[in-house]
Amino acid sequence: MTGTVLFERAAVLDTAAGELVRGQRVLVRGNEIAEVGPDVEAPEGARVIDLAGRTLMPGLIDCHAHVNAHSADLAGLADESPAYVALKAAKEMREMLHRGFTTVRDPGGADFGLHEAVAQGVAEGPRLYFGGKALSQTGGHGDGRPRGRSVREDHQCCPDLSMVCDGVDEVRRAAREQLRTGAFHVKIMLSGGVASPTDRIDSTQFSFEEIRAIVEEAEAANRYVAGHAYTARAINRGLTAGVRSIEHGNLLDESSLELFLEHDAFLVPTLVTYERMAAEGAEHGLPPASIAKNPIVLDAGLRALELAHNAGVNVCYGSDLLGGMRRHQLQEFAIRGAVLPAAAVIRSATVTAARLLKEEGRLGQVVPGALADLLVVDGDPLADLAVLTDPEANLRLVMQDGEVKADRLGD
């Protein structure tokens, strides 16, 4: 149940300005933030929570998380029971919420069922912006078949993260199928990847005409296309064709930066996944062929992040962790914090992420009219990002849609 809550003596994190504003009161009415300021009055019957100077900030947004991927052997998911995968996803989503992620975007795998389960309270987890199955060409990043297998199952209920389609007519139909289910975006594979068995990372995938067809279908539905891409060549083809967000982007160059700015597009780096795949990928099911490809993108990621930030590109937070490695979801803050200001890193997981989701003013900020997705943490994240990476020590309260999901203020 939601009600009326007043947080007093709060240090409010202004994510847009990158400032901590102390001595604030924040009134939550129902599932929205009603008022913010030093003199907000507590309505009769309101629950008053004294934060005693602790930081009150918006819930975190992970723009690239695969809630179904309970193993790093992505091809193997296709052979598992959808019920089993869904139950594993529900467990993982609850853990994500208790890390402070009140919203996630799943660019491949999650469907309308998981979205509805969270929205209706059947499962506890982040607000889920799902894309359905990612679209891949034959032999592309989403085609998990080994070289000797010709049969592939693309049924809607198969828990594979992708579907294969070729040619303008097929990709239009595939995009329409995902959009028909209520997908918030359409994910496509613009280049090769690490976790796929038969493609090269430096390949480009889908013809330009196929990419344009998918973009046209998404735009017709007032949605957008997210594109998996590593090399500048693949990134630039996608941006030129109208892809709105580039996932990963580790091998971008100066020409890519110009296109990001020209199209007001978004970059979603996922640096922590390459670090963890190098350290523990094998024990979580990552096949040897993928382990061999991982170093190609691991070393380039930080440089790409710096280039994008310095150029003023819209940068969002992503993790892309698989299987048991998903417990490191918050470590992306520490990796980025080594080269970027803390305010910029926090912005990527709040206000900029909200813009990508087309939820500006509703998510990622503590302002009147925003949804009451709020975290209470000990310490100042602007001074030390480690405040966010250790929830056991520092995360005291999680509120989502005006409901308290975790409360450790009395600890």
Low-confidence stretches are: none
User: How many whole angstroms does the radius of gyration measure?
Assistant: 21 Å
User: Which shape, going by the Cα principal axes?
Assistant: globular
The tally of domains stands at: 2
Largest sheet, strands/sense/barrel: 8 strands, mixed
- What gap, in angstroms, lies between the N and C termini? 23 Å
User: So what's the CATH class of the largest domain?
Assistant: Alpha Beta
At CATH's second level, what is the architecture of the largest domain? Alpha-Beta Barrel
Q: Would you tell me the overall average pLDDT?
A: 93
How are the SSEs ordered, and which strands pair?
Elements: E1 4-14, E2 19-29, E3 32-37, E4 47-50, E5 55-58, E6 60-62, H1 74-77, H2 82-98, E7 101-106, H3 112-119, E8 127-130, E9 134-136, E10 162-164, H4 168-180, E11 186-189, H5 208-220, E12 225-231, H6 232-241, E13 245-251, H7 254-263, E14 266-268, H8 271-280, H9 288-298, H10 301-311, E15 314-315, H11 331-337, H12 342-348, H13 351-356, E16 374-377, H14 386-389, H15 391-394, E17 395-400, E18 403-407
Parallel strand pairs: 1-4, 1-5, 6-7, 7-8, 9-10, 11-12, 12-13, 13-14, 14-15
Antiparallel strand pairs: 1-2, 2-3, 5-16, 16-17, 17-18
